[in-house]
Specification:
Layout: E1 15-19, E2 24-28, H1 31-42, E3 46-51, E4 56-60, E5 63-67, E6 71-75, E7 78-84, H2 93-107, E8 112-116, H3 121-131, H4 141-149, H5 157-161, H6 169-181
Parallel strand pairs: 7-8
Antiparallel strand pairs: 1-2, 3-6, 4-5, 6-7
């Protein structure tokens, strides 16, 4: 795993996020990268997440170009290479140039290339909330099995909390939110 560096006065907030997909820490270099990482971790088709997965080099118009993508997602449909950039910066000529040749290089391998910007506020808030329930070892397997056997489709959270009256409501609530994270 690459290390995250920090220096006084830096403009970005970098760190490590414990990914339920990787069952390990994955680095990010900005809050925007963290938001894309959360969305990838919530996506059931994503099987692996690698930060700064490899350097790309290409000769473009007689110029040697280098770039390291932000993420490689290994999905059920195949590899997805992701670069993260604020929407306001996408029209910057240097950014557009780099992402242009990167797209050509990635897609020439038959892979998918994605440029991610700010996600919807509601989607991100909901994903961030549910991410608090992503650590499966914190939940009793028997309770999860009981909840999986109850049909809760269409029920409100309040109704769902009462589906196992013999169980403490806080444990049931947490387990239901974990199953929502798992998209059960």
């Amino acid at each position: 795993m690459a290390e995250v560096s920090w220096h006084q006065g830096q403009r970005h907030y970098s760190g490590s996020y414990w990914s339920s997909t990787e069952r390990a820490l994955v680095i990010y270099e900005s809050r925007l990268e963290l938001s894309r990482l959360l969305v990838a971790d919530f996506d059931r088709s994503v099987r692996r997440i690698k930060a700064q997965p490899f350097p790309l080099e290409a000769n473009v118009a007689g110029r040697r170009c280098r770039h390291v993508p932000d993420y490689l997602l290994l999905t059920d449909e195949g590899p997805v290479v992701v670069d993260v950039k604020p929407a306001a910066r996408l029209s910057c000529p240097a950014v557009a140039f780099t992402f242009g040749w990167t797209r050509v290089a990635v897609e020439s391998k038959g892979w998918v290339y994605e440029v991610a910007s700010e996600p919807g506020e509601v989607e991100l808030a909901n994903t961030r909330f549910l991410a608090g329930y992503r650590r499966d070892w914190l939940f009793e397997g028997e309770l999860l099995d009981e909840l999986r056997s109850v049909v809760l489709d269409g029920d409100t959270l309040g109704t769902s909390l009462r589906c196992l009256p013999a169980r403490p409501q806080p444990a049931v609530r947490s387990a239901i939110l974990h199953l929502l994270w798992r998209q059960h």
